[in-house]
């Protein structure tokens, strides 16, 4: 009989469809796993609602549970319970190593443009803070584009949500 | 309640559709990326809202988004307008974000827990759309062409929010209270957009899986 621990371990193997260096567990999008007699209830919190990978993530969760011989019920929870603060420390390190600057912590008030234009974001290549905002928007809803003035490398910044 | 949800969902779907018309042809590459990303996100919000509505109406989200007749859509005429120049496009983005903020604030404080939760999530994402709108408003604020576009679209924008939210929007935008262009009617260019938007869905046999 499948256990919750096996399910969590299996979910660690599911890569994010768009940033495959991190898993869905690293991203913190799986809120809970409950197992009763082979029936697996999963609560899944989307990152950005406009993320085209949501369906693929949901399917991957169902397939993993099926491969363990369980029967999955994946509930999508669209509220404000996921934030980029849920990305695990290991996930943040994997992002950095792959050239994505991890998100800044969520604060009580919403981020403002001047913050994004300031020098608080480190270049994931050379660690310099001499970086500038090129575009709030990038190839997916969760990323912004920045440029490092020190090593002249463009890079992507995970948006704080 | 269902009427309100469908109105919101339709607004988000149609503004997303209209914004996506700049994909590939925006005046600069950064805006090509920005408009594509914003459009994608607004359509994502529409999907989440249609899912809520579908649960209430015992329907499915795709069916609500694409299987209704043009007259059945509840979106405000504001989002249907086919805008061909940059000043009007930016003016609409700015006014849309201002209006959307007012109604999201109301929904977040509302009694429906599920809708309040979704509104809070949408609001987090809209922060970035607002930054974009604000940046452009600062850049174009001194240009007559932009100011005229804002004034021209203002009655339409006012029609986007509920009557009891209009005073707040008037205060935020700083223009005079005028007669709003209300929901319920559609603009002349709406049927053509509906045709295009539902074309793929209509060309598939019933029961096709998406």
Counting DSSP E segments of at least 2 residues, the number of strands of chain B comes to 0
Helical content class of chain B: 55-70%
Low-confidence stretches of chain B: none
User: Could you say which overall geometry of chain B the principal axes of the C-alpha atoms support?
Assistant: globular
The total count of strands of chain A amounts to 7
Share of helical residues of chain A: 10-25%
The poorly predicted ranges of chain A are none
Q: Give a short account of the largest sheet of chain B.
A: none
Number of helices of chain B: 9
Structural class computed from helices and strand pairing of chain A? alpha/beta
Description:
- The complex is a heterodimer of chains A (161) and B (210).
- Chain A is α/β, with parallel strands linked by helices.
- Chain A has five helices and seven strands, in the order ααββαβαβαβββ.
- Chain B has helices at 2-20, 29-57, 61-66, 77-80, 86-108, 113-140, 144-158, 166-173, 190-203.
- Chain B is globular.
- Chain B has nine helices and no strands.
- Chain B is mainly alpha-helical.
- The A-B interface holds A 48-52, 78-83, 110-113, 116, 134-141, 145, 159, 161 and B 30, 33-34, 36-38, 40-45, 47-48, 51, 114, 117-118, 120-122, 124-125, 127-128, 131-132, 134-135.
Question: Can you give keywords for this protein?
Answer:
heterodimer, A: 161 residues, alpha/beta, four-stranded mixed sheet, B: 210 residues
Quick take:
Chain A contains 5 helices and 7 strands; from the N terminus they run ααββαβαβαβββ. Chain A has helices at 4-11, 24-27, 54-67, 89-97, 113-117; strands spanning 30-36, 39-44, 71-76, 100-101, 131-135, 143-148, 154-158.
């Amino acid at each position: 009989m499948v256990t919750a621990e096996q399910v969590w371990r299996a979910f660690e193997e599911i890569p994010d469809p768009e940033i495959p260096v991190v898993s869905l567990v690293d991203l913190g999008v799986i809120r809970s796993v409950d197992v009763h007699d082979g029936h697996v209830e999963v609560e899944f919190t989307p990152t950005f609602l406009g993320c085209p990978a949501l369906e693929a993530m949901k399917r991957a969760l169902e397939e993993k549970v099926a491969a363990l011989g369980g029967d999955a019920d994946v509930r999508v929870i669209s509220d404000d319970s996921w934030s980029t603060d849920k990305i695990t420390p290991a996930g943040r390190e994997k992002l950095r190593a792959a050239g994505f600057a991890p998100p800044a912590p969520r604060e009580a008030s919403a981020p403002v443009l001047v913050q994004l234009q300031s020098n608080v974001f480190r270049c994931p290549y050379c660690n310099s803070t001499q970086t500038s905002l090129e575009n709030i928007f990038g190839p997916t809803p969760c990323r912004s584009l920045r440029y490092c003035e020190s090593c002249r490398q463009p890079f992507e910044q995970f948006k704080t949500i | 309640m269902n009427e309100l949800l469908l109105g919101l969902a339709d607004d988000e779907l149609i503004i997303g559709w209209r914004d996506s018309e700049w994909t590939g042809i925006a005046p600069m590459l950064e805006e090509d990326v920005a408009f594509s990303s914003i459009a994608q996100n607004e359509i994502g919000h529409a999907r989440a809202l249609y899912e809520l509505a579908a649960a209430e109406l015992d329907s499915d989200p795709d069916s609500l988004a694409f299987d209704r007749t043009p007259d059945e859509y509840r979106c405000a005429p504001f989002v249907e307008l086919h805008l061909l120049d940059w000043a009007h496009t930016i003016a609409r983005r700015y006014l849309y974000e201002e209006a959307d903020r007012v109604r999201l604030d109301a929904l977040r404080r509302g009694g429906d827990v599920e809708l309040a939760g979704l509104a809070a999530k949408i609001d987090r994402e809209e922060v970035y759309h607002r930054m974009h709108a604000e940046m452009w408003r600062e850049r174009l604020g001194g240009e007559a062409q932009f100011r005229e576009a804002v004034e021209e679209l203002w009655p339409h924008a006012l029609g986007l929010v509920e009557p009891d939210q209009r005073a707040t929007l008037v205060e935020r935008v700083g223009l005079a209270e005028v007669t709003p262009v209300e929901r319920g009617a559609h603009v002349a260019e709406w049927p053509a957009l509906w045709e295009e938007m539902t074309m793929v869905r209509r060309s598939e046999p019933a029961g096709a899986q998406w």
